[in-house]
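TL;DR need structure tokens for one chain.
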Amino acid sequence: MDSIRQNKVNSLLQRELAEIFRQEARNLLPGGIITVSAVRVSPDLGLAKVFLSLFPVKEKAATMDIIKDQTHRLRGQLGSRIGKQMRVVPELNFYLDDSLDRAEAIDKLLKG
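>> reply
TL;DR here they are.
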């Protein structure tokens, strides 16, 4: 169970990272959309798990590798945006949110 503070930080990070990815999408994923579906921050606020949805992408693993290579730069941009609100910018770990893919597969199974 997350604390109230963790929930506030989760929503702040999700909002700011969504804006960063909106600006960076043409560099990271040309012709695609990167959505920050969830952020989960650790109790000490030092680590953030960021779940991303990618659409429309065939090679999701390769795109995630590109994003993970840019983690340092993305964290720097995040720090410049939230520096007044948080003392320490958390480390970012990116994960692929494949819940939409699973839902689509289940839908195909139910219809077929």
